[in-house]
Amino acid sequence: MMDRARELDAADPLAKYRVHFILPDGLIYLDGNSLGALPSATPAVMQRVIQQEWGEGLIRSWNDADWFEMAARIGGKIAPLIGAEPQEVIACDTVSVNLFKLIAAALQMRPGRKIILSEPGNFPTDIYMIEGLERQGLATQRLASREDVPTALDEDVALLMLTHAHYKTGELFDMAALTKAAHEVGALVLWDLSHSTGAMPVDLGAIGADFATGCGYKYLCGGPGAPAFAFVAERHHRDLKQPLTGWFGHARPFAFSDEYEAAPGIEQLQCGTSPVLGLAALEVGVDLIAKIGVKRLHLKSQALSEFFLECVVELGLELELVSPADSAARGSQLSFRHQHAYAISQALIARDVIGDFRAPDILRLGFAPAYLRFEDIAEAARHLAEVIAGEEWQRDEFNRRAAVT
Ligand SMILES: *Cc1c(COP(=O)(O)O)cnc(C)c1O
Predict the structure, then answer these.
(1) For 375-400, how does the pLDDT look when each residue is reduced to its tens digit (9 = 90+)?
(2) Can you give the pTM of this predicted structure?
(3) Is the CB of 126 under 6 A from ligand 1?
(4) Up-side HSE of residue 25: CA atoms within 13 Å toward CB?
(5) In the record, which positions carry N6-(pyridoxal phosphate)lysine (predicted)?
(6) Could you write out the DSSP letters of every residue in 246-260?
(7) Residue to mutate, 129, 194, 196, 229, ligand 1, most ligand atoms under 8 Å from C-beta
């Protein structure tokens, strides 16, 4: 197993990028889908932004260091990763807030329709944000299981809102087919790309998507709480009316006018002042992921998860895979159902193998392709086999729940 891993590492065209990330020695990090690793260029960039741009430049840096343009500039760099044009993407807010703005904008573009269609078991915040608009009397939530989504699409649906790669199982939706089906009944489509962006190519332009948002701190390695991004197809810019009409979305924020006038382009999606430090860290991650290339990252992510499954078989581990067995049908992760998934994930962490647990019974292993080695995969499988065979997970210390899992 280890020999095979070494062969695969030797032949891996992305192996050379691992040194562009700071990872503690001996740690096997299978949680890059929750918080991406730290790019080694980030600390120096942050040092410069903090000491020179903030410390010395002070307020002048809004112009001199291009702080004012940062959100749109980084959006433009995320665009090719998701098949969008640079003027269609902006880095701002969180995924949750972007969902709110985009759902409300979609409702406003489909007068007479109130239904937002999604699936039960979508990432909680996605569903909660529909509920928030429902509480305002603006939206009505409709949830249909993934098989039933096409039949639940009818002419009352204003917006179909789905997550491309499911956070728990990694199962992918067919974005092209569902976008087409939604458009056929006159509905708009909003894709949550949190678990795809930076791990696999997505082509929003080719499929004719209307809206999208995604996460900056997962595969884009933008750091904890990094700003998210939002996409609006250019054909909708003229009709876009997002509800959080803060001054940074104004056509001329520094005119300090009493009347709100939306910026004509994607800048309208901004609300308040850009989080410059967060954006600075995000830009380093985006640059690095863009340089490695999402097509190559996707191929490697598939190879890593395939290899993990081979190791599992070789070790005689009997695990219930809840991710699709076909790597073309899943994101960059493998999830296994086990009654003691929480304790197993804790026992693995004690062995310096960091994956995570998703309630109630899922052990989730993320395969961030930019920095993982096949060797790590073989080692992780061996640790998992030992934890299960030796019932190490039974120890009390592994059965106490922490706040963040
Ligand atoms: C991680 C994730 C989010 C995160 O939302 P934030 O508001 O940025 O915390 C949203 N949706 C999905 C599907 C996610 O995986």
Answers:
(1) 999 999 999 999 999 989 899 999 98
(2) 0.97
(3) yes
(4) 0
(5) 218
(6) -GGGBS-GGG--SS-
(7) 194
